[in-house]
Each structure stands twice: as C-alpha cells, then as structure tokens.
From TrEMBL:
Gene3D superfamilies in the record: Nucleoside Triphosphate Pyrophosphohydrolase, Winged helix-like DNA-binding domain superfamily/Winged helix DNA-binding domain
Record-annotated Nudix hydrolase domain positions: 24-171
InterPro entries in the record: NUDIX_hydrolase-like_dom_sf (IPR015797), NUDIX_hydrolase_CS (IPR020084), NUDIX_hydrolase_dom (IPR000086), WH-like_DNA-bd_sf (IPR036388), WH_DNA-bd_sf (IPR036390), WHD_NrtR (IPR054105)
Keywords for the protein's UniProt record, in alphabetical order: Hydrolase
CDD domains for this protein: NUDIX_NadM_like
Keyword Transport annotated: no
Matches recorded under Pfam families: NUDIX, WHD_NrtR
Protein name: NUDIX domain-containing protein
GO MF term list: hydrolase activity
Amino acid sequence: MNPAELQAEQEFLQSYDPNKYERPIGVTADIVIFTITSEVLSGSTKCLPKRSLSVLLIKRNGHPEKGKWALPGGFSSADETLLETAQRELYEETGVDNIYLELLKLYDTPGRDKRGWILSAAHVALVNEQYLANRKAADDADDVQLFTIEEVAKLDLAFDHRQIITDAVTYIQKLMLQTTIAREFLPSKFTLAELLQVIQTVVPSYQITKTNFIRKMLLTKKQPIVIPAQNEFSTEFSQRPAQLYQFANSYVPHLSIYVDPSPKT
C-alpha cells in the first residue's frame, strides 16, 4: 500500500461509524463435550460392560434460563479468539482443561437468546472420561453432570442447546466412522467385540453382526486397520479365548473406515 492509499484508509477509519450498522450484542462459545461411560454388569456370565454416549452439562445459576441444564459456555472478549473463549469457559464452569476442541458450527438463528442478538460458535470434543474426572461446578454453574443421550432427550435445555447437541452427535458419529478415535476408549490391545461395541455406542445405526464385522476387519489386508496381537488372547468378556488386536499405527484414514463407500451415481 502506497502512502496515498495508506492515508486514505486512515481517514476512512477515523470517520467510520460502527453504529451505522446493526450488529450482535455479543458472541459466545458453547462447548459440547462427549464421552463414553462404562458400567460393569453384574451376573454369573462374562459379558462386555454397558457403554453409553454421554454429554457434559451444567445447571445455570443465573438468568436467563436459570435452573435449566445447558452446555458450558460464555461470552467472548475482544482480546481472545473464540477457541480461547471456549477453552476458558469450559475450565471456569466445569474445571475441565486441556481438551482438544474442534469448531462445530456458528449458531445465529434470530431469537435463539432472550437477551437479544447473540451468536454462538459451538465447539465439540469426544474424549475419554478420565479427562472429566476432576469436573466441578463453578462460576455461572450450580452443578455439572454427565447425562446419557437418552437422558438428555428428557431434559428441558436452555437456549438452542438441544439443536447444538443434535448437530454435535452427527459430527462425532462421522468422526467415529472416519477416524481411529475409537482407540481412545479401548486398551492398547482389545477384542474386536470391544471395538464394535464402542463404535455402536456412538453410532447406533451402524448395524452389523459380530461375525461380519470380524470378517470385514480381517479382509482389509492391503492397509489393515487393526492387526492381531501375536499369540495373545483374552477371556475377560467371554468364556472362550478371544483374539486380541491393536490398531495399525501405519493406518491413515480415508473416507469411512468401517463401512463400504457409497455407490457412485
């Protein structure tokens, strides 16, 4: 930019009136943290634990929507990015820190917030429950809890957080089918039955028999997703010894891992 253009721009900015245009009264960041909870089933027969997809919610202690369950979140300031806002608000309201967050979507439907024109940049993560072990309500939250997706369906949620959670579920379902994130919820060596259960916990619509799933995993020889642990078996969840597997470190995901590509039209 030459001196004349620089001078022209400076004059424009000095005379620029930001009040000339309508603008939001605030921009917030909301955070959707999913995990897979596990519950050991009592009984005489060996079986896999009960796994549930759960989401972290806070109970609001201030107006509007006081007393309702909501996603952690809050207003951004001019000296931080929206990702930094999400990280800060998550820690301030729940005590949860050091979580890798991804931007989900910008929510801007008119009337979504009773306070006025407020936009929200929703962020999402699917993490092992151990990262949520020290959760504790603080700041604008009276309580913080994990709810299964089935329980969330029965709650009266604040703002448009039900829609955000619905969109976030779709996002992590794609993540589960297109990456090896399932390894975050498995030991380093696992049975294929355990892997299938983790996938179906997040993606219930992924219906396949255990036999066909095992066949699909074993037939992927060109670039294997999982490889057998040599001469290692487990009877933890079955009466008969089950082969243990581990993820192939060389695997680089392309499109969907566990399902066949959609046919070309």
